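Write out the bound-state structure for glycine.
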Amino acid sequence: MNILIVGSGVVGLSTALDLALSGERVTVVTRNYEEGASWVAGGMLAPLSEELEGDLLDLSVDSLNLYGDFIGRVEEVSGIKVFFEREGILRLGVEEEELGEVYRRAERYREMGFKVEKLGPSEIRAEEPYLSEKIEGGVLYGDEGNVDAEKLMDALLIAMNQLGVRIVVDDVVEVEKRDRRVESVKGLKDVYRADFYVFATGSWSRATLNLPVFPVKGQILKVKGPEPRKVCYSRISYIIPKEGYVLLGATSEDAGFDTRNTLEGVGSLIDGAVKVMPSLKEAELLDIKVGFRPGTPDGKPIFDAGDNYLVLVGHYRNGILWAPVSSRIALDLIQKGVRSRYLDSFSPSRFEG
Ligand code: GLY
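---
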């Protein structure tokens, strides 16, 4: 089958990888393959730290369970090692009030069967010696993980090349649809036709598909300095050690497609991180990045399937986490005709009327 994927973020490329590995002929059309949220993502695989519930939590757990194999496929095809671990994330309570909420929520997750370790002042410092002395405690969510999103994207692009997936740079301006069928995808340079279409258009989905997706700007810092042992997640900062550098994230701004790094944004990231881990004052600033999370009115993704198309957009704060399950939804539908239950949970019909 000829499959056209629109969008080259982590969702588009993971789907392209798996479809190509299953023998499909895949073309990816993208406005810019270095743009979007995936390149700027913190790479935390953190549904509990992010306080997800219900269908979003189910989706996350399904995707986490697919992650190890997914990274294995990416590494095997690309020949590139992608940093990935499941050592757990420290969810800190920086303020007393936050800590109370963290403990209460953790108790609920424990009752649901998740790996939860409640930590007091000395235990949390045994896990993470660099923490500020003012931090009284937190929780270790032992199932959570951490992946180098930038490396993952590099490896996925190389994998496309290895698998003969064509990447075409074009700006899609119109999707020609009749009832539940896509007839063609029109770009500024060309018109594209395929047997099946996958739309993974992230923050750009309003213009392309008229769906209620909007950009949520995030600025993030890349630094080199004291490396914490574990991801430290709190309301004011997340500090994410990778191999060879640390990410300090992230702002969350309603600023449209504004690509500027601002002093206010960068200042708040530095203040937050240093409050949690004072020794970061010494860190060297390597890079300041900006990206656009694809937000939706209820913070949930939008999945939709027609006769010959699938829409996988609105991954908001969890695109890296939900990439493997998104790809699985595509494979099940295209190759087995099996409709995932998530197509009902996250249907755009919830916004009608
Ligand atoms: N998942 C973290 C963020 O979107 O900032």
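---
The chain is about 35% helix and 25% strand.
Residues 54-78 form the longest helix (25 residues).
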